[in-house]
Amino acid sequence: MNRTRLLAVHLRAALQTEWQYRANFAAQALDAAIGLGVALGAIEVLFRRVDELAGWTASQLILLTGVYLVISGFVNLVVHPSLSRFVREVLNGTFDFVLLKPVDAQLLTGLREVQIWKLVDITLGCAVIAAVFATQGFPGVTALVGMLLLTAIGVCMMCAVWFIAATSVFWLIRVDNILTILQSCFQSAKWPISVYPRWLRVFFTAVLPTAFSTTIPAEFAAGQGSVPMGALAVLFCGALCILSRWFWVRGIRRYSSASS
Fold this sequence. Notes:
By secondary structure, the chain is mostly helical. The protein has helices at 3-19, 23-46, 58-92, 96-99, 105-109, 119-136, 141-167, 175-185, 198-207, 210-221, 227-254. It is globular and about 60 Å long. The mean pLDDT is 83.
């Protein structure tokens, strides 16, 4: 069995497991709709008093909300649940079963758990972006392609950051707390990086790159993207992926099961 088929089998098994709990779909849809309503309501209240926020208009902030929903949806769809499971298996000493499979362990680890209901968040995010385009005008093919490319890069960045945090389980114990903190910090991506003080802008660019993952794609969606910043996002994404792989390889060398 080749690697592609093996990964497909794991994904299908994860989807079948999730599909047994169909009521989760209604609950997730309601939760996502309420969250979106609160976010849009906050923007509405804010812009009753101001015309712009750190150079961003109301429609641009709504675009940013859509991009955030798409990226956070992908993270919560597969990355966060898969890596939470990975942390539990390392602590329990059952991660051996992953290492014994004839496929790249890091790739398999990141795809083993799927919360299919998080597709609701991705769908709502795409709907928000489409609604802004319909009401404010289409920004052009170049801007759209730039947004799609940088959104994909943003997802890759978040995957790399999550992997780096989760891989620390090979050295630390309470990594579940780190993942929870990381999940909370990612909430900052709901707002443009320019609203934060300088020290936080540095943190949300160089440490937890929410600026690259949501702000820059939203700027491209609004037709105000900077090509140099887009290129920097691509380079930074590559650096994070390399660092993630390096951490993973070093961590695997330190791993020993609970039975060994």
